[in-house]
């Protein structure tokens, strides 16, 4: 129960940060895809930099996970076509919906009920991928 509270607290803080930084704003996302503003690119750049630093700290200090086991981060597999294709689908979905999958629950919590359509589509897409995974080129 103690760990669940930690995760909920981090989730609430993350939601507040994304909301206050306007990263969940359809208008900001639209601006980004129209190359009219650096706002979202700045947020994404900070997230990438934070991830790089965090992974280096984990690797260099042999940090353990919540169960006390070493965190293993395997190298990415070779090949670029699947990353380009996956990124294209992700970007197209993001541009069409006006939202990255990350803030779906934040937008729900803010009372934007139409995001339920996006949540349903995300769950359906994930389910279909699970069914078709073995038949797709990896």
Structure at a glance:
This protein has 138 residues and is mostly helical.
Explained architecture:
This is YeeE/YedE family protein. InterPro entries: DUF6691. The chain crosses the membrane at residues 39-58, 83-106, 112-132. It is globular, with a radius of gyration of 18 Å. The N and C termini lie far apart (38 Å). Helix content is 66%, strand content 0%. It contains 6 helices and no strands. The mean pLDDT is 86. The chain has one domain. With 138 residues, it is mainly alpha-helical.
Percent of residues in helical segments?
55-70%
C-alpha termini separation: 38 Å
| Strand/helix succession | HHHHHH
| Low-confidence runs | none
What general form does the structure show? globular
Give me the count of strands: 0
The largest sheet, given as strand count, sense and whether it forms a barrel, is: none
- The figure for the number of domains is 1
Helix segment count?
6
InterPro entries: DUF6691 (IPR046513)
Keywords: Membrane, Transmembrane, Transmembrane helix
Pfam families: DUF6691
Transmembrane segments: 39-58, 83-106, 112-132
